[in-house]
Amino acid sequence: MSELPCEVSELIMVRDRRSDGATKRRKEGGSVAVHRCVAASFVAAALAAGPGCAVSRVPQAPRAAAWIPGDKAVPRVTVYGSLGRLLPAYDETPALERFLYGPAPGRSGAAALRNPQGMTFTQGRILVCDQGFPDILAIDPATGRIASFGDSAHPPRCPVDITADVEGRTYVADTTLRAVLLYGADQRFLAELRPPGLAPESFRPCSVLVHGGILYVGNLAGRRLDRFDVARETWLPPFAPSGTALPLIAPTGLAAGPAGELLVVDALQGVVQRVTAEGRWLIPIGRPGRGAGQFVRPKQIRCTASRLIFVSDAGRQSVLVFDATGSFLFEIGGDAVEGGRFSLPVGLVTLRTSDLPVLAGRLAEHPELASEECVIVSDSLGGESLVVIGVVARAAEDGTDAH
Amino acid sequence: MMSGGILAATVLAVFARDDAVRDHARGPAGAGRPVNVDGRRRGVLASAHARIAPTEEVAGVCRVCHIPHIQVVRPAAPPATQPTTQPVLELYRMPGQRRVFAPGEFTPGPTSVVCLACHDGTIGTSTISGAHALLAGAREGFYVPGEYAWRDHPVGIPYPGHRPDYRPASFVTKDGRIKLPDGRVECISCHDPHNEAGVPGMLVMSNRRSALCLSCHVK
Questions:
Q1: pLDDT given at position A273
Q2: Residue of B49, B81, B90 to mutate, testing the A interface (most A Cβ within 10 Å of its Cβ)
Q3: Residues A217/A162, Cβ–Cβ less than 8 Å
Q4: What are phi and psi of B136, to 5 degrees?
Q5: What pLDDT, on the 0 to 100 scale, is given for residue B55?
């Protein structure tokens, strides 16, 4: 019997250790157990088909083999695990000190984060708002180095969201300073942005997004979207629903939608508002509630290149996934996240799998698990601080995806 | 005449119902109870939570945390069946990954999650960076910076009522003000989101001379 690759053994251990619980929950009709059991069985069976696998340890033919993806029109999602385990080891110990005393003991990877929230990916780095420091941390996926980002002379007080424009300038929403902090491409602090003529208590930016040359700011205190022309550096008239439209209360997340519209998460209303570039408010996505596809406390939102909409929900402790039309697809949470469930998922960022070299290298050994695109979810209460999720839009394989 | 009477009765009933909701939102149950009671501003509408009301109607502030008839913090029931077109979620466990957060242990419970979902610095004041929740993670091996240590009280921890330096749980919860959901210290153990006591910090009782602390700790 040849030796198992370590990934395979880990997977089978997961399946073995949890089989009792999965069976128990399946009797109760829970879909999560089916997901987990099928996923483990499918992955293990797929890996077992290759050389070097111990047949005796491979679970028997999955009872729910019909769940194995056969419909190419549905997306596939793979939870790869913590980003901290997918970064190269980085040691900041000076060379002489390392020679004398060895590498300094310490934490590495995403474990260095305390309370990560909003994120963005720019210039090859993942920028993470971390309230625990509080600071902006820059994670270099190529080297594994995590460093403070920005101007130490003007640090944020309570960074909750971050975005970047095409010129590399970075905008940070700070709810304590009640301003959007602007940093240049060289990380130098440039300005604190506030709409003119607005009393300080009427501006509390809790989300930011640069889209189409406009910086959109979710203003919690003003219950509206403030707009800033990035090129002209002037404030534009804000967007706010009027008439019979659902009022905007807490715009905690912003993203560009599949059709170019702006998606606005309203955490307190429990919906995702949609607004066009002209300021026309469309029919929202989702509704508050506990049922499938309903929101308890949605926080942030991202749209993938494959036109899937990911919404983090801190109240449900999960991430909800919708298609481009706003139809609910499935939920990632509960036991789906190894190491426990999400505690308080907040931030989302999308990037290509190739931007994570360690992950791309490992997936090269298991092409059946590969994906071109990843979504990283930040858990602001610890757990696995940053969880990487691979996304495969199966319709795209046929070339039928029209993005 | 008859229809007029019915209309008047209906209007009165609607107003009476609205008054009941208003009273509940303002403070302890009881018709006509004012906002100010013995010099304290009590009730949700007298607290910072009134700012989050989506609409000006009285029940609007309740709907933020209470989906009608259902408390939002309860876990959703999964569907009994799953269509074959459902996307497939796969788990891929990377080697060396450890199980850090054990569900049900040292993690904020459902009642605290609904608090922390807002009080993370975005909608409400941040508590997750202020050690309330951070220390809960410390018990599972998380790094806690020195300046945070014991600056604030952790949440999501079992109440150690068996220890001699703590009062028994039954004694702590006997008057109903301090709650220990599932025998754990959560946000609502010390804070009352409905602000019925009307004390600063929306505490369940006054902490004058550390009265709230000494309700649990034997010093």
A1: 95
A2: B90
A3: no
A4: -65, -40
A5: 63
What confidence tens digit (pLDDT) does each residue in A165-204 have? 999 999 999 999 999 999 999 999 999 999 998 888 899 9
Residue B134 Cα distances to A158, B120, B129, B156, B187, angstroms: 16, 12, 7, 10, 13
Structure tokens at A372: 């071109």
* Token pair listed for A71: 């419909």
Mean pLDDT, rounded, for A101-106: 60
Q: What is the identity of the amino acid at A390?
A: G
Structure-block tokens of residue A164:
């970047």
- H helix runs in B64-209, sequence order: 110-116, 134-138, 169-172, 187-190
Please check the confidence at residue A281 and state whether its pLDDT lies above 90: yes
Task: Measure B83 CA to nearest chain A CA, in Å.
Answer: 9
Find, among B93, B162, B216, the residue nearest to A81 by Cα. B93
Residues near A195 by beta carbon (within 8 Å), at least 6 away in sequence: A203, A219, A226, A235, A238
| Residue B6 falls in which region: left (phi positive, over 0), alpha (psi -120 to 50) or beta | alpha
Q: For A350-362, how does the pLDDT look when each residue is reduced to its tens digit (9 = 90+)? A: 999 999 998 998 8
| Pairs of CB atoms within 8 A across A/B | 240
- Rounded to whole angstroms, the Cα distance separating A299 from A264 reads 10
Sign of CA dihedral A175, A180, A182, A188: negative
ipTM (interface pTM): 0.74
- CA nearest to A118 within chain B: B122
Q: Exposure of B105 by Cβ count < 10 A (0-12 exposed, 13-18 middle, 19+ buried)?
A: middle
Question: What are the sequence ranges of the domains in chain A?
Answer: 108-388
With CA atoms as reference, report the closest residue to B179 among B159, B202, B201, B206: B159
Type of residue at A310: F
Q: Which CATH number is A108-388 given?
A: 2.120.10.30
Judge: A340–B103 Cβ closer than 8 Å, yes or no.
Answer: yes
Residue type, A263: L
| Spans of chain B below 70 pLDDT | 1-40, 54-59, 67-107, 128-152
**Mean pLDDT value across residues A292-305:** 92
CB A339 within 8 A of CB A354: no
- Amino acid code (one letter) for B44: V
| B81 at A interface, C-beta within 8 A | yes
